[in-house]
Design a protein that fits this description.
Length: 417
């Protein structure tokens, strides 16, 4: 069993009346997590019911709120119980449907999951304001991956392991950069099986989520778009250029990218700008939720080139930073000027900025890149980070402390304090 950090938060929320709404990519482990919660409750002799809208026999109970309530009462009676609803995105007007049931004030706790398309039903969040708490379950983080691979032996001493076992740490990192964190891929025993699993996940996504949402059978243009974005991970996107390459309109490109964001395939990162004349302010760039899916979509699954690996590592750092800020108002941007200066990430905390540079190298000397110096000179942030493979040092430029830290220490940072 792969342990997920989100499990404890979900378990603690079982005592709250709000709906526990689990969202995230297809095949990230939402159903497994819900079944684990149900199993825990069953052992305590709590009343539970599990329904899955991907199963026709269960889907019929969602024809109306009245029908669903009758099914719940039949199984649980009219006393306290826990109702698990999987794949809620299959229900039209899911937000209004759940709101109606929640507002009946029945003695049931609802734990609901949906893949990215639940986000596409724009009114679900409006309908459930004050009635839900969102839990985002992504594919395995590097920390979850590492703990599973080492059978949780170093769960309480991660930094000690990383500092002492440098070569082993790099091997684990390389494996994660190559194959990503989909549970089924991680559990597969060899490269051939991993390849088969990621292929099935990708095809399932195109055939189920995208075909269902866009009402199309041919998804070649979208699949090609994913491949192009993968090849340009961490680099500026030109919508007109993409339109020309794919033979579809620029608006369709933008629509497809929106769907890819809402179905937990891509993160859009926008530029940070203050100086309208000198700084890039329109073109975004994209990172992938899962590195393995990124590699598969561009034909590099299990075999990254030297020119790719730095950007994939940058993608990993972005995912870690974003996860740390997910419950805060802070936003992650990048910075780029018209004359070519750039900083990989800029965390906008509203009360201040934190620039971050990423280097897939075991730095020997604390040398600050010219672009970062330029940013510091212009914005005077209180601190900055240069993420690398080995060097740990602090350098001060004017009023800014620049922290050189090994990538694994990133996992223990708190940017909000």
């Amino acid at each position: 069993m792969i342990e997920r950090k989100l499990f404890k938060n979900l378990k603690d929320h079982l005592t709250h009346k709000e709906i526990s709404l689990i969202i995230g990519p297809r095949q990230a482990g939402k159903t497994t997590l819900m079944l684990l919660l149900k199993n825990k409750l069953d052992k305590k002799r709590e009343r539970t019911l599990f329904l899955n809208l991907d199963i026709e026999a269960d889907k019929r109970f969602f024809s109306s709120q009245e029908t669903l309530i009758k099914k719940i009462e039949l199984e649980l009676g009219k006393k306290k119980g826990f109702v698990f609803i999987d794949e809620i995105q299959r229900k039209e007007d899911a937000g209004i449907f759940l709101k109606g049931i929640y507002d009946m004030n029945l003695p049931y706790k609802y734990i609901v999951s949906g893949s990215g398309s639940v986000e596409l039903k724009r009114k679900i969040h409006e309908s459930l304001v004050g009635r839900k708490r969102i839990f985002e379950l992504n594919t395995l983080s590097f920390e979850e991956f590492f703990n599973f691979k080492t059978q949780y032996r170093y769960k309480t001493s991660l930094l000690d392991f990383f500092n002492l076992e440098v070569d082993k740490t790099r091997l684990f990192l390389d494996e994660y950069l190559l194959f990503g964190g989909y549970p089924r891929v991680v559990l597969a025993e060899n490269i051939s099986e991993k390849q088969q699993e990621i292929s099935e996940i990708y095809q399932s996504y195109l055939e189920k989520d995208i075909a269902y949402l866009l009402h199309v059978k041919k998804t070649e243009a979208l699949s090609n778009l994913v491949g192009i974005i993968a090849a340009q991970t961490g680099r500026l996107i030109n919508f007109s250029e993409l339109s020309s390459l794919l033979g579809i309109s620029a608006q369709t490109v933008k629509d497809y990218l929106w769907y890819l964001e809402k179905t937990f395939i891509l993160h859009r990162v926008t530029p940070y700008f203050h100086n309208v004349r000198k700084e890039i302010r329109k073109s975004p760039l994209f990172y992938f939720f899962d590195l393995g899916l990124r590699n598969y979509s561009v034909g590099s699954f299990g075999n990254l080139t030297m020119s790719e690996i730095g950007f994939v590592f940058q993608n990993l750092v972005f995912n870690v930073v974003r996860d740390k800020l997910i419950h805060s108002p802070a936003r992650v941007h990048f910075w780029k000027t018209t004359d070519g200066a750039e900083v990989d990430f800029v965390i906008d905390l509203k009360r201040g900025l934190i620039p971050i540079e990423v280097k897939l190298a075991a730095l020997k000397k604390a040398t600050i890149p010219r672009s970062l110096r330029s940013f510091i000179s212009q914005y005077n942030p209180p601190k900055s980070y240069i993420i690398n493979m080995a060097l740990k040092e602090i350098v001060k430029i004017e009023k800014t402390k620049v922290y050189f830290i090994p990538f694994f220490e990133l996992m223990s940072l708190d940017f909000t304090h």
